[in-house]
Design a protein that fits this description.
By secondary structure, the protein is of the alpha/beta class. It contains eleven helices and seven strands. Helices cover 54% and strands 11% of the residues. The strands form two sheets. The protein has a four-stranded antiparallel sheet, with helices on one face. A three-stranded parallel sheet has the order 6-5-7, with no helix packed on it. The mean pLDDT is 89.
Length: 312
């Protein structure tokens, strides 16, 4: 079943014509013929047809929405082809390919900005891809390959995910320890430092290292390849620590974990994640070294924990 907008715009009003067309195009409309625009009845952007109808009428033109129920499979197939996004995905594929070729020349900051722009383009396109097929799959693979390349080129030793299973450990065995992780702390490590100090080892001491070989004897490593605590499966280090030490039953810690996961490796968007990221970036910009960064970030995680706890 489809919704259709039938229009006849006032002659000579090219500005209105362009504005209506852009709005309908961004909602994913198919064009059956000049002045006849279609959307699947359950499409998220169906409200755009009503908005366009009102705007055309207000300008003195004719507009009417109707519901179409095609009678034969051939008719339905013909209409569905109006929503083929293959050419648009092809453009995105070409942009992703060009980006992969230019990563080294662009450098970390520009490359990440470009990838984020392409990621938004892909999300916008999939939002109006009402009948996804191979083209969407190819574009998704191309985006994944691009993001992998960026990670390999510009990561600062981000750990690879371990396939081992989580096992519960007694936090008593991890008290008064030296905990080590990679220098230049960022979200997963900052959250893990706070979690360790607040819930696991209140007398923890921390050391920031360049690599595994720099770990002091008897120390506990986290968030680097070969560390005792690092990514496992789909879980980031913060989530691994939650599960290992029986803290995953705390909803407030779980909420922080969702935000940390999204900021560290992506996945399901979290409402508060961008706000957390902005504050942590501000801390890193002002802090004089990792000690101060960890201290100030801990205050932020305390506030997030208090806010989430008050909702429980």
């Amino acid at each position: 079943m489809f919704l259709a907008l039938l229009t006849s715009l006032p002659t000579g009003n090219s500005t209105l014509r362009m504005r209506v067309w852009r709005a309908l195009r961004s909602s994913g409309c198919g064009v059956l013929r000049d002045g006849v625009y279609l959307l699947p009845v359950d499409a998220p952007g169906a409200a755009a047809l009503a908005d366009a109808e009102a705007e055309v009428k207000a300008a003195g033109g004719f507009a009417m929405r109707v519901q179409l129920d095609f009678k034969t499979p051939e008719q339905v197939e013909h209409v569905r082809k109006l929503f083929d996004r293959g050419e648009e995905y092809a453009v995105l594929l070409a942009r992703a390919g060009a980006a992969r070729a230019a990563l080294r020349r662009l450098g970390k900051r520009k490359a990440e900005t470009l990838v984020e722009r392409l990621r938004r383009s892909f999300a916008d396109l999939t939002a109006i891809d009402f009948y996804p097929g191979q083209a969407q799959g190819q574009a998704k693979d191309a985006m994944s390959a691009l993001e992998d390349d960026v990670g390999k080129l510009f990561s600062t030793g981000e750990p690879r995910s371990s396939k081992r299973r989580l096992r519960r450990l007694d936090p008593v065995q991890y008290r008064n320890r030296v905990w080590v992780t990679r220098k230049d702390l960022w979200v997963d490590r900052l959250a893990s430092v706070w979690l360790i100090k607040r819930f696991i080892d209140k007398k923890a001491r921390f050391a920031w290292i360049d690599g595994r070989r720099d770990s002091p004897r008897g120390s506990v490593g986290f968030d680097f390849d070969g560390a005792e605590f690092t990514h496992v499966g789909d879980r980031v280090t913060f989530e691994v620590l939650l599960g290992t030490f029986g803290l995953d039953g705390d909803p407030a810690l779980g909420s922080i974990g969702h935000a940390v996961h999204f900021l560290d490796v992506g996945g399901i968007p979290v409402t508060d994640a961008k706000g957390l990221e902005t504050v942590l970036k501000g801390i890193k910009a002002k802090a004089r070294g990792d000690d101060e960064t960890a201290l100030e970030a801990g205050k932020v995680f305390d506030l997030f924990y208090a806010a989430y706890s008050s909702k429980s």
